[in-house]
Design a protein that fits this description.
This protein is of the alpha+beta class. It has six helices and eleven strands. It has helices spanning 2-12, 28-40, 134-145, 156-163, 166-172, 217-221, and strands at 53-62, 79-87, 106-112, 118-124, 176-177, 185-186, 191-194, 200-207, 214-215, 252-257, 273-279. The strands form two sheets. Strands 1, 2, 3, 4, 6, 7, 8, 10 and 11 form a nine-stranded antiparallel sheet that branches. A two-stranded antiparallel ribbon has the order 5-9. The chain binds protoporphyrin IX containing FE (HEM).
C-alpha cells in the first residue's frame, strides 16, 4: 500500500528524468533540491518541500519532571512563546491536506527563549526516516522518477526498496490524520539532555496529541482540501474536540525519554511539557 502511495506520488507529479541525471558534481543538497523541483515542479516563493503549511502561535510550558532531565531554560516551568508551522510533504503548494502524498506531515517549532535566544525543533510524522544519507534520499527520488506505471518489473523503485528495507518500513508507518492537531510527530535525531547535576540522557522528541486520529484510506479521500485547523479562522466549521474555536493547532506535547533505540515500543514516559496555542494565519506557505 505504501509502495503504491510512493508510486502514485511519482506518477501524479509527472516525473521526468530529463535534467536530473548528470548532476553529481553538484553539492548533494543542490542535487536533492533539483530532483525535488523535478518531482514536484518549480513553484517560485515556496519551499522545495513542505510547501503548504499553516502557522500557529502559543506557549510551551515545561513539566516539573523535565527539570530532572534538563537544565535548559526551555524547561524552567515558565510559559515559553512558540511560533509553530504545520506543513504537508511535497513541494506542491495546493496539495490537499488529507492526501496520502501529504504524509509525512511536518511541524516546525521556534521557541522564543527569555533573553532573546531561540531554539528550533523540526520534526515530522515519520517514526524514523526512510534512508540514512542525503545520497540515498536523492537516489530514492530518482528511483521513483524512473518507475512510471508502465515500467518493467521489478522497477527501479522495487529494486531500491528491496535493497533499502527501511524505505517500505518507514512509509508503512505513516497514516493520514484528520487534522494537523490530531497527529503525532517524531524527531528522528537524538539529542542529549543534561540536567543540573550533569547527568546526561539521550532523547528523541515525540509530540503526542491528546487525540490521535488516523483515517482509513477511504475516509482520507473524503477530506476537504484543508484540515479544519487550516481553514479560515472564524468560519463555522467542525473542529476536532481538542482544538479551540480560535483554531488552536497544537495540543499536548511530550518528549520521549529513554534509550534512543527504544522508540518502537512507544513507552509512554512522563511528558516533559505541554503546548497551548492558536492558529495565527488562515493559510500560510
Ligand atoms: C534527506 C533528508 C531531508 C531532506 C532532503 C529534506 C528537505 C527539505 C526541504 C528542501 C525543505 C524546505 C526547506 C525550506 O525551503 O525552508 C524541508 C522542510 C521541512 N522538513 Fe525536511 N528534509 C529532510 C529530512 C527531514 C527530516 C528528518 C525531518 C523531520 C524529522 C524533516 C522535516 C521537515 C519539516 C517539518 C519541514 C518544514 C519546515 C518549515 O515549516 O519551515 N525533514 N525539508
Amino acid at each position: 500500500m505504501r509502495k503504491d502511495t510512493l508510486l502514485i506520488t511519482a506518477i501524479a507529479f509527472g516525473l521526468t528524468l530529463a535534467g536530473i541525471a548528470g548532476a553529481e558534481d553538484q553539492p548533494i543538497s543542490e542535487q536533492i533540491v533539483d530532483v525535488m523541483n523535478k518531482v514536484f515542479g518549480v513553484h517560485p516563493g515556496f519551499r522545495a518541500n513542505h510547501a503548504k503549511g499553516i502557522v500557529a502561535e502559543g506557549h510551551f510550558t515545561g513539566a516539573p519532571e523535565a527539570l530532572g532531565l534538563s537544565r535548559a531554560v526551555l524547561f524552567n516551568g515558565s510559559p515559553i512563546p512558540v511560533t509553530v508551522r504545520f506543513s504537508n510533504s511535497t513541494g506542491v503548494p495546493n496539495i490537499p491536506d488529507g492526501s496520502p502524498k501529504a504524509n509525512p506531515h511536518g511541524i516546525a517549532i521556534k521557541y522564543h527563549l527569555p533573553g532573546g535566544g531561540e531554539t528550533d525543533m523540526v520534526i515530522n510524522s515519520f517514526k524514523f526516516f526512510p534512508v540514512a544519507t542525503g545520497e540515498d534520499f536523492r537516489d530514492l527520488l530518482l528511483a521513483l522518477a524512473a518507475s512510471p506505471p508502465d515500467a518493467a518489473k521489478p522497477t527501479k523503485f522495487d529494486q531500491f526498496a528491496t535493497s533499502h528495507p527501511s524505505v517500505p518500513a518507514a512509509f508503512g508507518g505513516l497514516a493520514t490524520p484528520d487534522s494537523f492537531a490530531n497527529e503525532e510527530y517524531y524527531g528522528v535525531n537524538a539529542f542529549l539532555f543534561i540536567n543540573k547535576a550533569g547527568a546526561r540522557q539521550a532523547v528523541r522528541y515525540q509530540l503526542v496529541p491528546e487525540h490521535l486520529v488516523h483515517l482509513s484510506a477511504s475516509d482520507a479521500a473524503k477530506q476537504p482540501a484543508e484540515f479544519p485547523d487550516g481553514r479560515t479562522a472564524g468560519a463555522p466549521q467542525a473542529r476536532p474536540n481538542n482544538v479551540s474555536p480560535e483554531g488552536a493547532a497544537c495540543s499536548g506535547g511530550r518528549f520521549h525519554q529513554g534509550p534512543v533505540s527504544s522508540l518502537a515500543g512507544r513507552p509512554q514516559s512522563r511528558g516533559a511539557g505541554r503546548f497551548d496555542g492558536r492558529q495565527s494565519s488562515a493559510r500560510q506557505c
